[in-house]
Amino acid sequence: MVNVIGLGYIGLPTALMMASHGVKVVGTDYNEELVATLNAGKTTFKEDRLDELFQKAVQSGITFSTEYQVTDTYIVSVPTPYDEESKKIDAKYIESAVQSILKICPKGAVIVIESTVSPGTLDKYVRPLIKENGFIIGEDIHLVHAPERIIPGNMVYELLNNNRTIGADNKEIGEKIKELYSSFCKGDIVVTDIRTAEMTKVVENTFRDINIAYANELAKICRSDNMDVYEIIRIANKHPRVNILQPGPGVGGHCISVDPWFLVGDYPGLANIILAARKINDSMPEFVLERIHDIMKENGMTDISRVGFYGLTYKEDVDDMRESPTLQMLDSMEKHLCGNLVKIYDPFITKDVVPNQMHDLDEFLNAVDMVVLLVGHSEIRNNMDKLKGKVILDTRNICNIEGVYRI
Fold this sequence. Notes:
Elements: E1 2-5, H1 11-20, E2 25-28, H2 32-39, H3 50-59, E3 63-65, E4 73-76, H4 92-102, E5 109-113, H5 121-132, E6 141-145, H6 155-161, E7 164-168, H7 171-181, E8 189-192, H8 194-224, H9 229-236, H10 259-266, H11 272-298, E9 307-310, H12 325-335, E10 343-345, E11 357-358, H13 361-366, E12 370-373, H14 378-381, E13 391-394, E14 405-406
Parallel strand pairs: 1-2, 1-4, 2-3, 4-5, 5-6, 7-8, 9-10, 9-12, 10-11, 12-13, 13-14
Antiparallel strand pairs: 6-7
Helix pairs in contact: 1-3, 4-5, 8-10, 8-11, 10-11, 11-12
């Protein structure tokens, strides 16, 4: 049996995928309300094909509990935030999960850390914890790092098809965990050492962050000299070895906006390009606010309450708000005493999470004169005609209405 610890955006789909492919799974989470929801037959977030996968896993015997299980294999998928000041990883959730496992696990158990961590995290935090509890690593406890590699909005497909990395001290244990993931994963699964696996995952997300930062910096340069960054990128990308990404209002989610900071925190003075990219991407919400101010001034607008932000999530067609640029903008506006005035709407966020949040697209549009498109949900892409007559700032380059403003 496999005990999956942490039933959030990564742990739950992983548990469901294993269970639906014949693995006996118990999912554990300290959140009693979350566990109760799952035991009532409901998923806890929206994701394409997740409900279907959930039903299949339930039929295959998956159960959910707030209690850790006595078994030979644990998969830890808990949050890994970073310290705001030092930028180093905060491993408290991993430490807590491992400590709880050590209280009940049998000798020879395998602990798989699936959470994304900085290079050396298992050496700095997990190994000492295991030794302090009197266990011998490699005999009493086996350690593995198997970082997730999926994205909200396409989780089920990517769980099935993406390549995976398994880092282990012992190749035999690594191959055993590879076989476990092979129960559902059709991609290549590479077995390596733990530190390499840790670094590889962080490097992947850092690469993406740097490329996004280049596009965002181009947008700033072009805006300063009245050039069309989208046309420039379109033409430049005709070069066979150039693939510039699209600029946007910032970087959200729990991977790209967080993982590069691990390298900045652990390698100060060395991670210079990475630090610059982080600063550029983190500056984009403020840049968008400046654009809003300039556009309002150009159009003779003075009432901020007649401005509407479309989108609260960090990407299109998901309900994941972690680190979203919109929330970053609202936080910045609140510091300037105007964050509770703008109207907010997102079709995927049905509960009130911010002031002045609305829950109907037409009512939202009727209440505002200016719309800031911050997320490219399918809903708005399919209803662009409803924006006619509005002042529009399109941060996602999805609107072709004449007179639209872009970043």
